[in-house]
Structure formats: C-alpha cells, structure tokens
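[[Sequence with tokens]]
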Amino acid sequence: MAEPTGNQAMVGHKGALWLEAVTTGVTAHGSMPEKGINAVYEAARAITALQNFDFNFARHDVLGGPTLNVGAIHGGLNINSVPDRAAIGIDIRTIPGQSHAKIRDQLTSYLGDDVVVGTLLDAQSVWTSPNDPWIGEVFRIARDVAGFGDEIAAAPYFTDASVLTPAIGSPPTAIIGPGELTLAHQTDEFCFVSRIEQATEIYSRMIRHWSGI
C-alpha cells in the first residue's frame, strides 16, 4: 500500500471500528427542564464510563494495545430546550486477534440499555509476519534505496489494505510510501521530491522482484 511512511517499509496497521452511541430523552422547554429527560446528561454519563473501559486484551508486540477515543458529541437543537437526542462518536483502534463484533457487544453491555450503539466504520487490522520472504525482500530494497534498517514497524493509521488484502486472498502486505508519516492529513502536508524519487525506485525494484524480472 502506497501510504505516507517516509519510505520505511511497514508490515501492518491497527484496525478501525467507529461507533455511534445514541442516547434519547424527552424534550421540554428550557425553563421547565423537570418536565423533560435530558439526553445530553445521559450521554455525559456514558462518556465518563467510556474513560474507564478496559478491552482486557493482551498488547501486540509492535502495534501495542487497542485504544478508544471519544471524538465527537452532538446533542440538542437550541439552547432553550431540553435535548431529546445525543450522539457520541467513538473511535476504536484494534489489533490482530480482536473481534469487532465482540467489542461492539461488550460496549453495548457496558453502557447499558439506555444507550444504542451502531457501527459507522468497520476496518480490520492488517499484519504480515516480518519473517515472510517477500517482506524480507521489501526490507532489503528499502534499506538499499532509502537507508532504512530491518526494524519492524507498523503504521498508526489504517489503510485500504483492510479491504484489499482479504479481497485478493490475503497476500503479504507492505505499507510504504514517500509522504512523511507525521504529516498525514495535516494542513501543511507535503512530500519531499527526493522521497518521490526513492519511492519510484523502490516500487520498480519490488515489481521486478515480484514478477521475476
């Protein structure tokens, strides 16, 4: 996968499970909140609970542990009414061996019957053994062209390999590209011309090796 790695060969990335947790209430005028049920308060309780959620899953040697982040919350229509709906955006990053369906079931049970959990995105993690012969050749090429060693690394983001790798029979997958990893999706993202030239040579050598030329 051609993704920003600074031309360092990486052998995997975490999966992404994006969930929306919805709380509902009863609307009322803001001057009479006792006549309603505030969905934002219910959401706040859920968010506080999410801070303490434990995946209870062993860390991966390279990818580390799974993570959970509340990235968005939306609730209410205006300031002078009791909100009857609130939605929490939950960004979970997973590691090999984790079941996204099981995580969703765990969170649903953890948050309780007052919170409805739905899936927005389900992208599985990707991992290729560093001992795979083809991956070893990719390491060699990246070392020869860009000066990298044989250190085992994984991308912090997820890529289209989540879909493409299983769709084409789960071949060994390397993530390598000329962009700077730390600048991905930033406003001032850029790519050094020298990195593009290196990537062109790396990809050419990988193609020739793969095709036996």
Observations:
- Residues 49 and 111 are 7 Å apart (CA to CA).
- The mean pLDDT is 94.
- The two ends are 21 Å apart (CA to CA).
